[in-house]
Amino acid sequence: MTTATPFLTEENDPHCLPAAAAADLLAHAPWRRFASVGDSLSAGTGDPSPGYASLGWPDRVADVLRWVHPDLAYLNTAETGATTSWTLLSQLDRLVEFGPDLVHVPSGANDLFRRDPDYTFIEAELAQLFEAAARTGAQLTTVTLGRAFVVPRYPDWTDRVRRVNDIVRGLAVEHGAVLVDMWDHPVNDRPDLLSADGIHFAAVGQAVMATEIVKGLARLLDAEGARP
């Protein structure tokens, strides 16, 4: 006898938190000015998924923070296709002017779309971006790229992602960033994870990402004794 696989929605997805539960985790969060900079991953770009709200993960996190602080200010300057160099050039002024206390920084995905990526250069650019974001005084968040993110025209793509993920992990430690490690998250195995372009997380992935960011922030609050 074959058992049918249940149809997942946000309500029954084991890797998603309802908004109220997520807000409860961040009930003592101090953040009132949230910004996300970088590329399409930072923007929350992705196709709709049945059973999931069509919202990118940064908008979802902003909504959770609004449960805690209804006056939350939110800025998202992220652009599809932005490299780290372009982010440094085109988005930092707006970030500094905004005066954030919580900032999401990107993972260098678009820096890998070159015939021969220069990892020394990528690391230097990402380090400059992390440092600039940290100078605002904000708490940083970042993510590693998931293994479901594959670009077939580059036979060494998996190695590329592993290398940039290692760079991001090191920078996260250096700057005390909340790191959500999506590389081997179980959601990578879902057949409906990616959008039609085969690159961006669809809404199901956006929902899971938002939950993981919230959980990461909650762990930070616990470590700092900010939650009872």
Structural class: alpha/beta
Question: Tell me about the biggest sheet?
Answer: 5 strands, parallel
Q: What's the total count of β strands?
A: 5
* Uncertain ranges: none
Biggest sheet strand line-up: 2-1-3-4-5
Mean pLDDT: 95
Percentage of residues assigned to helices = 40-55%
Distance between the termini: 48 Å
The global form is globular
Please write the string of helix (H) and strand (E) elements: HEHHEHHEHEHEH
Strand content: 5-15%
Q: What gyration radius follows from the Cα positions, in whole Å?
A: 17 Å
| Number of helical elements | 8
Structure description:
This protein is of the alpha/beta class and 228 residues long. The protein has 8 helices and 5 strands, in the order αβααβααβαβαβα. The chain has helices at residues 19-25, 40-43, 57-68, 84-90, 92-98, 119-134, 157-175, 203-223; strands at 33-36, 73-76, 102-104, 139-143, 178-180. The chain has a 5-stranded parallel β-sheet with strand order 2-1-3-4-5, with helices on both faces. Helix 7 (157-175) links the parallel strand 4 (139-143) and strand 5 (178-180). Helix 1 (19-25) crosses helix 3. It is globular. The termini are far apart. The relative contact order is 0.18. The mean pLDDT is 95.
Structure summary:
The chain has eight helices and five strands, in the order αβααβααβαβαβα.
